[in-house]
Specification:
Elements lengths: L21 E2 L9 H7 L9 H18 L5 E7 L1 H12 L5 E5 L3 H12 L3 E5 L9 H11 L3 E5 L1 E2 L4 E2 L3 H10 L3 E5 L18 E3 L11 E7 L1 H8 L12 H8 L11 H17 L1 H21 L15 E5 L6 H12 L1 E2 L1 E2 L8 E5 L7 H15 L1
Parallel strand pairs: 1-12, 3-4, 3-5, 5-8, 8-9
Antiparallel strand pairs: 2-10, 6-7, 9-10, 11-14, 13-14
Helix pairs in contact: 1-9, 2-9, 3-4, 5-6, 9-10, 10-12, 11-12
The chain binds pyridoxal-5'-phosphate (PLP).
């Protein structure tokens, strides 16, 4: 029996009542109610036969969404950065060279992860707000002869969609480099064809165009990429993200490695089921249509898009901040007055753009009308 003097006062924390926001920022997006419902279903064990079946279904749905036949397609436990680190930390071996882009925030994160993996980083340059030029990528490949080439298909920091992906992958393969694509803001929202476009490794996050809470993040690797991973001379630096160990759980064996985030796997299963029901091509069309309406709406208000149509990213609309307007004040006013989230720019585009997402369940007419009218009101 504890003494009365020993007891400390328990924190007086009230019931959880988060505000009801409309999420039109760079992610997370609004979660579909069916996904939320899936998350409130009972837990089973992570090796339960019923869960093993769910794992198979998630893998099949992920292959459909990535447009790939890659056997090695899994949800990595963790956020998009975990899938990113699983990709880079396994494919890049100490002494390898990785070519990364400089045209946005997430190319910088790729570089940082490649260095931590013991790789040497070389860069292909393009300004923030512009895509990579295939000729520049070819020149960089010829100059540096990298083992791995990484690029960001949909740069969330700049609202730029990388066009000409097949050209980039073909150039990389001519130099025997494996290609890693960041598809965090494109998977399930913007055309992405992993196999047809020759992408060796692609990773993503669930909280963008899949409209699912973060926690289990898509990753796919070709047989060639997996051969490199499985024939490494040294173990990857992360035990948790070592794909040769994760193979035991997600491969045929289904043996314990770590306890899967069961509820997040339920969630991504339901989110991917929604993708399959809609049809992936229809989903790409919906994003383009709804984001097109958003773009037309902001342009009709006299605002300017940062990216020209050739590389406009429907899932993340970068809108130029008008002269004399404080972007932070506008974002705050939208939250305060409208419970509406959009974001400001960062890095080289700090203070210059608003970032307005149009992703997954947030890519709906009511959200688009709401963000355009609310922004118009706050800017008046
Ligand atoms: N890559 C891109 C393009 C992203 O937009 C993000 C997140 O916004 C990430 C990687 C990292 O994902 P997370 O924040 O889920 O770890």
């Amino acid at each position: 029996m504890a003494n009365a003097e020993d007891s400390v006062e328990a924190p007086d924390v009230g019931e959880l009542t988060p505000p009801d926001r409309t999420l039109m920022g760079p992610g997370p997006s609004d979660v579909h109610p069916r996904v939320l419902r899936a998350m409130s279903t009972p837990l089973v064990g992570h090796l339960d036969p019923s869960f093993v079946e769910i794992m198979d279904e998630v893998q099949e749905l992920l292959r459909y969404t990535f447009r790939t036949d890659n056997q090695w397609t899994i949800p990595v436990s963790g956020t998009g950065s975990a899938a990113m680190e699983a990709a880079i930390g396994n494919v890049v071996e100490p002494g390898d060279t990785m070519l990364v882009p400089t045209n946005g925030y997430f190319g910088g994160r790729m570089a940082s992860m490649a260095r931590r993996a013991g790789g040497e980083v070389v860069e292909v340059d393009a300004p923030w707000g512009e895509p990579l030029e295939p000729a520049d990528v070819s020149d960089a490949l010829a100059e540096h002869d990298p083992d791995v080439f990484g690029f960001v298909h949909a740069e969330t920091s700049t609202g730029v969609l990388q066009p000409n992906v097949s050209e980039l992958t073909a150039a990389a393969h001519d130099h025997d480099a494996l290609v890693i694509a960041d598809s965090v803001t494109s998977l399930g929202g913007v055309e992405l064809r992993v196999d047809e476009w020759g992408i060796d490794v692609a990773y993503s996050g669930p909280q963008k165009c899949l409209s699912c809470p973060p926690g289990a993040s898509p990753l796919t690797l070709s047989d060639e990429a997996m051969d490199k991973v499985l024939s490494r001379e040294t173990d990857p630096r992360s035990w948790y993200l070592d794909l040769s160990l994760l193979e035991g759980y997600w491969g045929d064996e289904r043996a314990y490695h770590h306890t899967a985030p069961i509820t997040n796997v339920y969630a991504i299963r339901e989110a991917l089921r929604l993708v399959a029901e809609e049809g992936i091509e229809n989903r790409w069309d919906r994003h383009e249509r709804l984001a097109g309406a958003l773009k037309a709406g902001v342009e009709a208000m006299g605002l300017e898009m940062n990216a020209p149509d050739d590389y406009w990213l429907p899932s993340l609309n970068a809108v130029r901040v008008p002269d004399g307007v404080d972007d932070g004040e506008v974002c705050d006013a939208l939250i305060d007055q409208y419970d509406l989230e959009i974001a400001s720019g960062l890095g080289d585009l700090e203070g210059e753009i608003f970032r307005i997402g149009c992703m997954g369940h947030s890519a709906r007419p009511e959200n688009v009308i709401y963000v355009v009218t609310a922004l118009g009101d706050v800017l008046e």
